Here is the input.
Amino acid sequence: MEAIVNIDDVASWLKRWEGDIPHLYRCTGGRVTIGVGHAIDTPDDAVSLPFADGSGARPPEQDVRDAFSRVLNAPLPTNTPARSFARFTAFTMDGADRDALVRNDIDGFATRIGKDYPDFPSWPAPAQTAVIDMVFNLGPAGFGKFKSLIAAESETST
Here is the structure.
């Protein structure tokens, strides 16, 4: 695949609009999440992440599993701000690790988009950023519903 827009630029864009939360929280879609919208599907997935407690030590696996469950089942409304979930966990993930997660997510989205739309790397950088943002928020299937947008972008890149 040809080069895509600068991943750091896309990460900055997403952080600006999505936020960058250092602790587990539940997104508006109901999924346990961390950082810049990185969904964590299972307690095992949470355990695999590099969390640290207040002293910088890695928390025991069971504590991570328990925090995942508390956040998932927190008696809070759907649109509760992410910061409200901090009370359900005693550990966080540092900025460098959250940056690595979002960069990896962006790279995965760009790869997926490039497979579905082979001319994606030739699209202008603002269009690539917008599409990655849309896939980030809607998923590949959700983005695929924007047939006219995709067709128009494909026409302008040739």
User: Anything to note?
Assistant: The longest helix spans residues 95-116. Helices lie at 7-18, 43-47, 61-72, 95-116, 125-144, 147-156. The chain has one domain: 7-156.
